[in-house]
Amino acid sequence: RAKDMGRNTFQFYQPEMNTSVGARLNLERRLRRALRDGEFLLHYQPQVDIESGKIVGMEALVRWLDPEVGLVPPSAFIPVAEESGLIGPLSEWVLREACRQNKAWQDEGLPPARVSVNLSARQFQQRDIAKLVTAILEETGLEPRYLELELTESTIMRNAEEAVVMLNELHALGIGLAIDDFGTGYSSLSYLKRFPVDRLKIDRSFVSDIGASSDDETITSAIIALAHSLQLQVIAEGVETAAQLDFLKERACNEMQGYFFARPMSHEAIAGLLQRERVAA
Ligand code: C2E
Ligand code: MG
Ligand code: MG
Ligand code: MG
Question: What are phi and psi of 73, to 5 degrees?
C-alpha cells in the first residue's frame, strides 16, 4: 500500500497530475518574481480607421520577457495569473503602463490616439475598478478619452445586471468601452442596448473566414449592421488579407486591426509609425 511505502509513494500517483500541479506552482512562483522584477512589457497593435487609413488607436497586449525562456505570450500565463490572484497586480501594472506611455507619446508631440487595455473577468468582478482607473488617469495625466477598456462578451454576460452598473460607472469617467471577441458569447439584444459601450470588436474567428465561409461572412455583416443600428462603432480584429479589408470596407466597418496592417510591436516601433503619420499629415 502506498502509505507503507513511505517516502517513495509519489511514484504511485498519476504522473500527469504531479507534473501539472508542479508546473503550475512553478509558473506561479515565476510570475510573482516577474511582477517583482519588472519582467512584463507591453506590445501595441495599431487600430486603423478604414476610411482614412490612419492609426486612431492601439491595443496594449501584455508579454512576459522570461529570462530563461524569452518572450512569452499572454495565453501562456493569463489563465494562471487569474487563478492565483496575480491578475490584480498584473492588470494594474498594464493599465498604468499603457496610460503612462500614451501620455508620454502625446507629450513628445505624436498624434494623439487612444490606447485600449484588456480587462480580465476577475478584475471586472472587483467592484473598485472605476476607482483604480480614476486614480491612474489622475496620476498619469492622460485624458480619459484616450483610454479604452476592452471586456469580452462572456465577461460582461456572466453577470449582466452587475455589468450594467459597473459599465455605467466606468463610462461616467469619460473613457471608452469596447466589447471584445464579439459574436462568440451570447449577448441578448436587450442587454446590448443597456450597456453604455462605444464599440464592438468582431471576433477574429469570423473575420478570418471571410472569403472562405459564407456563414461567417453573414455573421460579420450582421454584427456591423447591428452595431450601426445601435449607434456603436465597430472594429474587426484579425484582418490578414486585402480581400477581408475590402469586404469590411464595403460594409462600412469603421476600424480594423490585424496583421494585414501591422502585428503587435514594441513601443519604439509604434512610436515610429505614429511619427511617420505626423510627418505625412
Ligand atoms: P484579444 O484581446 O482578442 O487580442 C487580440 C489577439 O489577436 C492578440 O494576441 C493579437 O496579437 C492577435 N492578433 C491580432 N491581429 C491578428 C491577426 O491578424 N491574425 C492573428 N492570427 N492574430 C492576430 P495576443 O497578444 O497573444 O493576446 C491574446 C489574448 O490575451 C488577448 O486577446 C487578450 O484576451 C489577452 N490579453 C492580452 N493582453 C492582456 C492584458 O494586458 N490583460 C488581460 N487580462 N488579457 C490580455
Ligand atoms: Mg482585446
Ligand atoms: Mg479581441
Ligand atoms: Mg480575440
Answer: -75, 160
Q: Beta-carbon neighbour count of residue 43 at 10 Å?
A: 20
111/109 Cα distance (integer angstroms): 6
List C-alpha distances in Å: 263 to 209, 239, 258: 19, 10, 6
Q: Which atom of ligand 1 is nearest to the CA of 203?
A: 3
Q: By the 8 A CB rule, do 176 and 145 touch? A: yes
Whose Cα sits closest to atom 21 in ligand 1? 238
Are the C-beta atoms of residues 163 and 125 closer than 8 Å to each other?
no
Cell of 251: 460594409
**From residue 42, how far is each of 114, 128, 208 by CA, in Å?**
15, 24, 25
Pocket of ligand 1 (CB under 6 A): 45, 61-62, 73-75, 78, 91, 94, 118, 120, 150, 180-181, 204, 237-240, 257-259, 264
Q: Which atom of ligand 1 is nearest to the CA of 123?
A: 44
Q: Report the DSSP pairing between strands 176-182 and 199-202.
A: parallel
- 228: cell is 450601426
| Residue 40, C-alpha cell as written in the block | 512584463
Q: What residues of the chain score a pLDDT lower than 50?
A: 1-17
* Three cell numbers written together for 11: 511514484
The ipTM (two decimal places) reads: 0.97
pLDDT of residue 3: 44
Model confidence pLDDT, tens digit, residues 239-275? 999 999 999 999 999 999 999 999 999 999 999 999 9
Position in ligand 1 atom list of the atom nearest CA 240: 18
Kindly report the pTM of this predicted structure.
0.92
Beta strand 40-49 pairing with 55-66: antiparallel
- Which amino acid, one-letter code, is at 56? V
